[in-house]
Amino acid sequence: MDQINRIRKVCERLARVSSSEQNITGPIGYLVGAAYSLIEATRFGYLYGQIKDNEYMIELKAVLTALAEDTPVSAVKGTRCFDGVDEAMDLDGIWLAGLYFNSALHRIAAGAERIGVHINKADIPEPDVIRRARRDVNKLKHLMNDRPNQESRGLLTGREVQSVSSAIEAIEALEALTDVCESKGMIG
Questions:
Q1: C-alpha closest to that of 133 among 103, 157, 91
Q2: What's the mean per-residue pLDDT of the chain?
């Protein structure tokens, strides 16, 4: 089953929510946003790759120019370096794909905490795939200038969420959280 169909199956399961209580609809809302973001990341061809600082600044300026001029951000070219490839590749829409992918990870981490799946204060043990997603989010969120090995921008040099495809692991985290929602009776 391809990635988008896997996400659609999760959406079908989440659509069985039957309570309007905020303690149920709030966490489900995070997972719905994660599903949407993963679909968009996949559509825009998300790939895990590295970018040099000066190229990232140029890419951000191109995105900002597109936004200021009301032109599609999806047309902005980005450059990424991939393991085992000598030269960087120019890719259309890669910044937007990364934006959606990072949004999905943030929503997965927040949804996990709201559902009660968190390493320190959980009522349900945290699966490894969710732990890796949460660690990536924390790396993206918490830059500290006195820690030179920490990431300095919204691109990670060493994602926790990476297997054959980091998008596949993000989908696995979304599926795991949906399983928890079912086991807790949040969805039918």
A1: 103
A2: 82
Domain boundaries, the chain: 3-183
Q: What is the pLDDT of residues 34-48, one digit of tens each?
A: 999 999 999 988 877
Amino acid at 18: S
Check: pTM over 0.90? Answer yes or no.
Answer: no
- Length of the chain counted residue by residue: 188
Phi, psi for residue 182 in degrees, rounded to 5:
-65, -45
Backbone φ and ψ of 48, nearest 5°: -80, 115
Q: Are 178 and 13 in contact (CB under 8 A)?
A: yes
Q: Per DSSP, what are the bridge partners of residue 124?
A: 117
- Using a CB cutoff of 8 Å and minimum separation of 24, what contacts does 69-78 make? 74/44, 78/51
Q: Concatenated DSSP letters for the chain? A: --HHHHHHHHHHHHTTB----HHHHHHHHHHHHHHHHHHHHHHTT----B--HHHHHHHHHHHHHHHHTT--GGG-EEEEB-TT-SS-EEEETHHHHHHHHHHHHHHHHHHHHHHTB-TTT-SB---HHHHHHHHHHHHHH---TT-TTS--SSS-SS-SS-SS-HHHHHHHHHHHHHHHHHHTTSB-
Q: 35 near 174, Cβ under 8 Å?
A: yes
